[in-house]
């Protein structure tokens, strides 16, 4: 028979390690590229995703409602360099294709919507997102777009609730704001 307490402890430990690796991705990738115009918003398995501050396009400015598009660029880093140095920082890379991400913001409720396949989806702050869904980069890309457009923080120190870990976490790490200079 399976010991439920031991299984739960093992699962929580595994999730904690995954969360640490997700938050630690920034340590292995350059925080910015292109003279600071590209800001790291996600990374994993040798690919860094960067929000290009030069591509911010404010499509709606009607406080408290905003709509902004920003281009996200993928950068493939050298696995060989990783094996030798345990980091991608300073190593060779290849810039991949970029793609636009469009966001709608509601300042009053601090709600964020993102466009996918012509539909607007709420980025739910009380849900755990996986990389398979592509959602961990959404709040970071949205925050870079908003901060670049208005020199203000959208989420600031707002937290989200992890139903799996039963704990609150900051949506945006303070280090992103330091990189953005706000």
Overview of this structure, please?
By secondary structure, the chain is of the alpha+beta class. It has one domain. Helix content is 29%, strand content 38%. The chain has helices at residues 4-23, 25-28, 79-85, 137-150, 174-180, and strands at 32-33, 38-44, 47-62, 65-77, 93-106, 111-116, 119-122, 159-162, 167-170. Strands 1-2-3-4-5-6-7 form a seven-stranded antiparallel beta sheet. Strands 8-9 form a two-stranded antiparallel ribbon. It is globular and about 50 Å long. The relative contact order is 0.14.
Low-confidence stretches: 9-24
Radius of gyration: 17 Å
**Total number of beta strands:** 9
Query: Strands of the biggest beta sheet: in what spatial order?
Result: 1-2-3-4-5-6-7
Q: Main β-sheet, in a few words?
A: 7 strands, antiparallel
Question: How are the SSEs placed, and which strands pair?
Answer:
Elements (H helix, E strand, L loop, with lengths): L3 H20 L1 H4 L3 E2 L4 E7 L2 E16 L2 E13 L1 H7 L7 E14 L4 E6 L2 E4 L14 H14 L8 E4 L4 E4 L3 H7 L2
Antiparallel strand pairs: 1-2, 2-3, 3-4, 4-5, 5-6, 6-7, 8-9
Structure characteristics:
single chain, globular, two-stranded antiparallel ribbon, 5 helices, alpha+beta, 38% strand, 182 residues
Give a brief rundown of this model.
With 182 residues, this protein is an alpha+beta fold. It has one domain (4-180).
């Amino acid at each position: 028979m399976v010991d439920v307490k031991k299984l739960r402890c093992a699962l929580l430990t595994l999730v904690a390690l995954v969360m640490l690796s997700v938050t630690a991705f920034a340590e292995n990738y350059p925080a910015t590229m292109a003279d600071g115009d590209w800001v790291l918003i996600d990374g994993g398995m040798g690919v860094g995703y960067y929000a290009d501050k030069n591509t911010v396009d404010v499509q709606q400015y009607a406080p408290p409602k905003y709509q902004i598009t920003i281009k996200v660029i993928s950068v493939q880093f050298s696995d060989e360099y990783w094996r030798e140095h345990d980091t991608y920082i300073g190593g060779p890379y290849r810039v991949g294709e970029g793609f636009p991400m469009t966001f709608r913001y509601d300042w009053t409720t601090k709600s964020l919507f993102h466009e996918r396949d012509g539909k607007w989806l709420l980025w739910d702050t009380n849900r755990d997102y996986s990389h398979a869904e592509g959602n961990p980069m959404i709040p970071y890309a949205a925050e870079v777009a908003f901060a670049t457009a208005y020199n203000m923080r959208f989420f600031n120190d707002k937290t989200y609730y992890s139903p799996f870990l039963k704990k609150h976490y900051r949506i945006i790490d303070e280090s992103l704001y330091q990189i953005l200079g706000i």
